[in-house]
Amino acid sequence: MLMAPPRESHIALYDIDAERLAESKLMLENLNRSINQNRAHTTAHLGVENRKEALQNAKYVVNAIQVGGYEPSTVIDFEVPKKYGLRQTIADTLGIGGIFRALRTIPVCIDFARDMEEVCPDAWFINYVNPMAIVTAAMLRASGISTVGLCHSVQVCAPICSNASASWKVSKISSGKLPASIIKPGCSKSVMGVMICIRRSSAARQT
After folding, report:
1. Which of 197, 19, 23 has the alpha carbon at shortest distance from 112?
2. Does the annotation mark 41 as catalytic?
3. Fewer beta carbons under 10 A from the terminal one: N or C of the chain?
4. Cβ-count burial of 159 within 10 angstroms (0-12 exposed, 13-18 middle, 19+ buried)?
């Protein structure tokens, strides 16, 4: 909302948890009111049966979920490897914990992709879910949906890389456009987190 493209958008929130969905909608409405003069339109869509409605005609789909929750799933990602002598500091991106997480997350994301192929095939799937590389690669290989993985740790890692005299490059998303270098390809499970679907509002389309 701090940049022009999303200011008059229709932002559809999707979740399978009613309480979390209501909290997300309240937070977004407060932001819309305080920094955006209520120009955006927000809707909430609860449950798998309403997912396609949330995705309908979306331009961007922001994926921020956690399949299985912290307990039991994330705890298992640590405890099972530890039982066999494998200790991990972070078990959501690499190693056996990351593989565990990928195996339960990829099927859910592919379900999202199948719905997107039906109701918003030209939308970009913007993935914030770990394991970042594995989930993003799975989306690109298993679906025709344009997908990009974004990691919020770049701003932390970049200074470290600089101090180590390593070279690095970061692409930026601005003005509602994705970098040209990004490639466009030819459950009964518990899912935590909200998926955000952004599309132009009817008022914006008329102007």
Report:
1. 197
2. no
3. C
4. exposed
Report the alpha-carbon distance of residue 186 to residue 143 in Å, rounded. Answer: 9
State the Cα–Cα distance between residues 61 and 74, nearest whole angstrom. Answer: 24
Q: d(Cα 40, Cα 5) in Å, to the nearest integer?
A: 10
For 153-199, write each residue's pLDDT tens digit: 666 666 666 665 555 555 544 333 333 333 333 332 334 445 556 56
Catalytic entry in 10, 41, 45, 152: 152
Helix (H, G, I), strand (E, B) or coil at 194: strand
Q: Rounded to an integer, what distance in angstroms lies between the CA atom of residue 2 and that of residue 146?
A: 25
pTM of the shown model: 0.78
Burial class (CB in 10 A: 0-12, 13-18, 19+), 25: middle
Contact 12, 45 (CB under 8 A): yes
Angle between helices 95-119 and 75-83 (to 10 degrees): 140
How do residues 16-35 score in pLDDT, each as one tens digit? 999 999 999 999 999 999 99
Task: Name the H helices within 84-153.
Answer: 95-119, 132-142
Task: Write the DSSP symbol of residue 49.
Answer: G
Contact criterion met (CB below 8 Å) for 98 and 110: no
